[in-house]
Batch of 4 targets.
Target 1
Amino acid sequence: MKIGMIGLGRMGMNMARRLLKGGHKVVAYNRTPDRVKEMVKAGARGAYSIEELVKKLIPPRIIWLMIPAGRPVDEHINLLKGLLRRGDIIVDGGNSFYKDDLRQKRELKSFGIHYLDVGVSGGVWGLKIGYCLMIGGDKKIYQYLEPIFKTLAPKDGYLYCGETGAGHFVKMVHNGIEYGMMAAYGEGFEIVKESPFGKNLDFSKVAHLWNQGSVIRSWLLELAEGAFKKDKNLSSMAGYVEDSGEGRWTVQQAIDTAVPAPVITASLFQRFRSRQEQTFSDKVLAALRQEFGGHRVFKSKPKRNAPP
C-alpha cells in the first residue's frame, strides 16, 4: 500500500522504515527537512510540505500522523481538511486523548474523510521487533488498512478495539499500567540499594536474574538490565521523570467511573514528586523511559518543572 507519514520523530521514522521493509510505498514529511532526506535515502519519497505530500499520494489517500497530541494534531488535521477528498483516510497514531478522537471524527465526517485512532506502543525498539497497535474507528476502514497493521506489528500484535476513540482509550490505560509497573521496579531497586546488601550487588545481574522464570519477569526488566550495564548506579542522570498525559487521563477516567486505581494514581503522583527531590527509584524510572522510548533524561534537575 502507499501511505503518507507525517512526523519522523523517534517513532515515526522507524515506523516508516518498517513499512518500507514490508514492501509498502512511503511518502515522508517532517518539518525538519534533514529527517525527510534521511528517509529518502532509506527508499521513501520525500515531501517538503504537506501539500506536496498529498499530491504524491493516490486516492484513496492514507495519511498517518505521528506527531504530539493536542494542538499539533488539530493544526495538521485542519490543514488536511482542505487538501484531502472524500474517501481519503487520516490515521492518528500518536497519544491523543480519546475524547479528541470523537471530535475529530465528527468534524471530518462532513468532509467525507475517514478517521482511525491507533495507539502505538513499542518505543525505539519497534523497528526491530514490531509495534503493538490498538485500533479504533470504522471497522471497514480498519480492514482496508490491515496490510499496514500486519507489517508494523509482530504476530498477534494488533487489535481492532472498537469504534472511534477505543484505540487511544486502550492505549491510555496501557500507559497508566506502565506507570505503575515502572514505579514498582523503581521502588524495589531502591529498597535493594539502601539495604545492607546493596553495595555488593550488581543491579544489572539482579534484573537479569529476575527475568529467568520469575513471576515479575518482563521487557521492562530487560531494559533495566541494559540501563544498569551502561551506568551501574545511574549516576549520569537526574531522577526527574516527565509524564506525557496518558497517566493523568487514566486517573481521571478512574475517578469518572468510580474505579479504585491506587497504584496508577500513586505512580503518577510519584512523577510529580520526582521534580522536587531526587531518589534512586526516580532514576530507575528515568532510565527505563530512556531505554524503551528514547525519552530525554537530565544530568541534573531542570530549574523549572516541565509541562506534560
Target 2
Amino acid sequence: MAQDTDVFVVGGGPAGLAAAIAASQKGLRVILADGAKPPITKACGEGLLPDAVAALRELGVKMREEDGSALRGIRFVDGDSSVNAPFPAGPGLGVRREILHQRMVERASDCNVALMWNTPVTGLFEEGVVAGGKRIAAKWVIGADGSGSRVRRWCGLESYGIRSRRFAFRVHYSLEPWNDFTEIHWAGQAQAYVTPVGPREICIVLISEKRDSRFNECLLSFPKLAERLEGAARASVERGAVTGMSELKRVYRGNVGLIGDASGGVDAITAEGLSLSFRQARALADALEAGELRHYQEAHRRMSRRPWQVGNLLLLLGRQTGLRKRTMRSLAAAPQLFERMLAYQMGETRPLELATAGAIFGWKFLAA
C-alpha cells in the first residue's frame, strides 16, 4: 500500500504539534489530526520553564513580546514562610495556553505539516490510521492524544506503573501581578499556583486531592491569596482537569510511538509537563530519522527520571504538613540551597553538587 505520509500524529495539542514540527525539521512528511479545532486550551498553570522556552526556540516557534510575561523564578509560600529562587539560565514565560497553541500551529503550518482539524481518528491498522472515515497510510504513527489516549489503548500499551490522581481548577484574573515569579502556595493537602501571563492578568490554578472540590471552596484554604484576589474581575470561566503521576513500561510498539501525557506524565506540581513533551519531541524525531523507536524508549526513560524524582518529593511535602513546614524553615534560613535544588530540576546542577547541597540542607533541617 502506498504511503500517504511518513508520520501521522494523532492529537493537536502542544505535544502533538511539537512532535509534528520536530519530525518535519528532519525532512519527513507529516500529517496531524485532531477532533477539535484551534485554539485548543487546557486547565494548566501556563508557566513555561526556561528549558521549555529554549525548546520552543529550537523548534522555530516564535513567541512575541506581547504574548505573555517573563518569569524570573519560583517562589514557595506556606503561611507566613516563603522562599524563592531565580531560574539559573534565563527567564521562563507565563503565557495563556491558547496563545501558545496558536503560535505552535503557525509554526507547524510554516513547516508544511498537513493539519486536519475537526477530524477524529477512530482506529489504527497495520499501515496507518482511520481518520475522518478514511484510511491514511503512514510509516509511523505518533499518539499525542493525552492521558486518556486511545492510541495507547489500541496498540496495547495501557499497563501503568505508579500512578496518582489529583484535581485541578483554573481561573484567570484581570489583576496586575505583584511579582515576576511563579508562586506555589501550600495549604494542607492542596496547592495554589499563581502565574503572571500578561501585564494585567494572572492565572490561578488550585489543585486538591478531593474529587468534589471546586475553585471557590479550595481558595478558602489560602486566605492571603484570596485577599489579593478580592474585588478582581475574572478574565475566564473556571475550567477543570485531572493531573497525576503515571508511568508506562513501554512507549512504543511496532511503528507506533507515544508522546506527552499519552506516554505517561508527571504531576502539575513539577511544572515540567510541557518541558518534558518538547524534549520528547526532539528525541522522537531523532529516532524516526534513524528508523529505530527503541532509541526513543531509552531517551524517554532518561529524561523522565529527574521530573519523577522532583514530583515525588513535592507530593510528599504536600501531604506531610509538619515535614513541609520544617523544610520551608530550613530553606528560608539558607536560600542558596533552594537555588541549587531548582538548578537540579532545570538540569543545571550535577547530582554530586546536589548531594553536597543535600548534606548542608540536612544540618539546617535538624536545626529548624
Target 3
Amino acid sequence: MLLPIPDVLTAEQLTRARQILDQAAWIDGKVTAGHQSARAKDNMQLPEDLPAARQLGEMILAALGQNPLFITAALPLRVFPPLFNRYQGGQSFGTHVDNAIRQVTGTPHRIRTDLSATLFFSGPDEYDGGELIVEDTYGTHSVKLPAGHLILYPSTSLHHVRAVTRGARIASFFWIQSMVRDDGDRSLLFDLDMAIQRINRDISDHPSTVQLTGVYHNLMRRWADA
C-alpha cells in the first residue's frame, strides 16, 4: 500500500523546521547507506547526533502519534528516529531497496523495516526533479508532495529519487516496524477500519458496526506482533 498522508506538520512547525534545516551543516549522505545503497546514493544528510536533528525528529514523532491516518495505516510498533536529507545540483539516489533491519545509532535497539516514509519539507515549486519513484506490483508511482505531507510505502519496494536539477529537495526519511508485518494484511485492516469509520459517520449506531469492529480486532489478534 502506497499512501499519502497530508498535513503531518502545521505551517508553524514547517517554518521553524525550515529555519533550522536551512542553517544546518550537512554531511555526505553515504554515512547511513548500506553496501548496495552506498553505490547509488548521492545526497547530503544531517548528522544523526546533531541536537537540531534530534529536536526535529521528536517533533515529527509527536505529530505522527497524533495523526489518526498514519496510525491506522502503519499500525506502528516502533518508529526509527527520523533522519534528514537534501538533494541539489544534480544529486539523486539510484534504484535500491531499504535494509530489512536498522540499528538505532547509539542504542542496542534494532527495528524491522516494514514501512518506509518520506516527509517533505520543500514544496514542489522549490525544485525541479527529485520525484520519489516507487515500484510495486501495480506499477511505477511518481511522488512529489507539498511541504508537510508524508508518503508511506512498503520497505520491500524498489525505489529511487530522480536527480534534482534546480533548487533543493529537503525531506525527512525513516522506517516503521508495524505490529502487522505483512503489507497485504495491513492493507486489509486499513480498508476494514476505513469502512467502519465511514459507517459510523454516515449511519450512527448501525448494528453492523459492532460486528465489523469485532472482525477487525480478531484479525489483529491473528496477525499482530505486539
Target 4
Amino acid sequence: MQLGMIGLGRMGSNMAKRLEEHGHEVMTYDPKVDSTAKTLAELRDQLEAPRTFWMMVPAGQITEETFQTLIGLADAGDVIIDGGNSNFRDSQRRYSEAKGIGIRFIDAGVSGGVWGLSVGYCLMVGGDEDAVGHSEPIFLALAPEDGYAHVGAAGAGHFTKMVHNGIEYGLMQAYAEGFEVMEKSEFDLDLHEIAGIWRYGSVVRSWLLELLHAAFEKEGGDLEKIKGYVEDSGEGRWTIAEAIAEDVPVPVISAALFARFASRQEESFAAKVNAALRNQFGGHAVQAVETAKSSTQDPR
C-alpha cells in the first residue's frame, strides 16, 4: 500500500527503507533531506485517497505543527499515524480533533532504534479498529513476527510506549550500576568479556546487554572516550507522573531518572550541602574547590 513518511531522521529513513523492501510504496517529506515532496501539500497530492500519513518527527512543537498542517490538508477518511514519542494525552486530544472532521488518527509506539531496519520494530498501536485495520499491512511489514499489537483505544499506543521506556530506564541503570561496582573492585576484571559471557545462559541476558557488549568492543572496556552525561526524552518523567496519579510506587524508575539528572551536573550543590553539614556536626574534612585538598579540622 501507499504511505507518506514525514520525517527522515535515523528512525524514519530506516522505516521507509524497510517498508519499500516489503513492497510498499513510500512517498517522503523532510525539509532537511532529499524527499519525494517539497511540502506537505505536495506529499498529499502524491498519495491516492484514502491517504495514510506517518509522522516520524520529534515529540512536542514540531509534532503539533505537523499535525495541525495535516488535518488542514487531509480529506475525510485519510489516516494520520504518529510514530514519535508523543505524550499519550496529546495523542488523545489529536484523535478527537481529527475525528471531529472525519480524519482517522492512530498513535503508534515504536521501539527498535537504529537496528529496526534489519530486525524490525516493536509496534504498540492505539486507535479505532477501522483505522488500524486499514493500516495493518504497514505495521506487519515494520514489525518482526509477533512484534506488533493493537493495544487499545486512542492514546493506548503512546501510553504503552511511555511505560516501556520507563522500564528501559530502570534496566539500563541496573546494568550501569553493576558494571561500575565491578569496574571499581579490587579485581582486574575484563568487563567486555563478562558482558559477553552474560549473554549466554545468564538470567540477566538481554538485548541491552548485547548492546553493552558491543559498546565495550567498540569503545574499549573503560569507555574512556564517552562522557557520562545522560539525557532523557521525557517518557520516564511521564511514567512517574502517571504512577503518582495512580498511587503506584515506581522507585526503580524514579531512581533511574534521578541518576540521569545527576549525570549532567559538573558539580552538585546538594553534595556541597552534604559536605558542609558533615563538617559542621562532625568536623569531617571537606575539599576546597581551589586546591581539591582536605581541610584539617580536629573532630573533637
